[in-house]
Amino acid sequence: MMASTRVPMLHLEKFTDARSKFSTLFDEAVQNELPVVIARGGHEQGLLIARDALLRLLAPFQLHVDVLPEDDGTFTLWLRELDIGGTGSTLKEARAELVSATCGYVRDYWRQFALYRHLPDMSAREPYVLRLSLADSEQEILDVLFGGTSAPDPAPKPLAYAA
């Protein structure tokens, strides 16, 4: 019987070699949208992938927002996949609260990731959190939450995920 040798199916680059030609590898991954595996020490591997390619991969992880009119005339918007919500006296206020709660959730998720990745209910949320993490404006968060149907803001506000 012949010994099996693992043949990489993606471009595989040793970490030390990758450092010297990072610009070329970045172009391959981002401009050509061909993922590049970067290996270090024989056991650790990372993946360099274009943002747009990752967004396409995460597209099936749709978020669903329920609109819950309250008895007092206020509104609650509930994001099912993350179990978070926002409340306001108008839908616009509830939407703003939901965006704020979502951004806070994403920041907290990454801060607590060492723990969350070991909890099945929390690790199952990772693709949704990653999809939201790739948003670079409030408008993009709204598009992810509401399927791109939200009215655009005249000047989208940049988001900051760092603490």
Task: Walk me through the topology.
Elements: E1 11-14, H1 15-20, H2 22-31, E2 36-40, E3 44-48, H3 51-58, E4 65-69, E5 75-79, E6 84-88, H4 91-111, H5 113-116, H6 120-123, H7 126-133, H8 138-146
Parallel strand pairs: 1-2
Antiparallel strand pairs: 2-3, 4-5, 5-6
Helix pairs in contact: 4-7
Largest sheet descriptor: 3 strands, mixed
User: End-to-end distance, in Å?
Assistant: 55 Å
- Supply the CATH architecture of the largest domain: 2-Layer Sandwich
Work out the count of structural domains.
Answer: 2
The structural class is alpha+beta
Instruction: Give the overall form.
Output: elongated
How many strands appear in the DSSP assignment?
A: 6
- Total count of helical runs of at least 4 residues: 8
> What is the CATH class name of the largest domain?
Alpha Beta
Q: What is the fold-level CATH name, i.e. the topology of the largest domain?
A: Double Stranded RNA Binding Domain
User: What's the arrangement of strands in the largest beta sheet?
Assistant: 1-2-3
Low-confidence stretches: 149-163
H/E series: EHHEEHEEEHHHHH
Radius of gyration: 20 Å
Beta-strand content estimate: 15-25%
Helix content: 40-55%
Please tell me the overall pLDDT. 85
Labels describing this entry:
three-stranded antiparallel beta sheet, Double Stranded RNA Binding Domain, alpha+beta, 2 domains, YefM-like fold, 43% helix, disordered C terminus, three-stranded mixed beta sheet, 163 residues
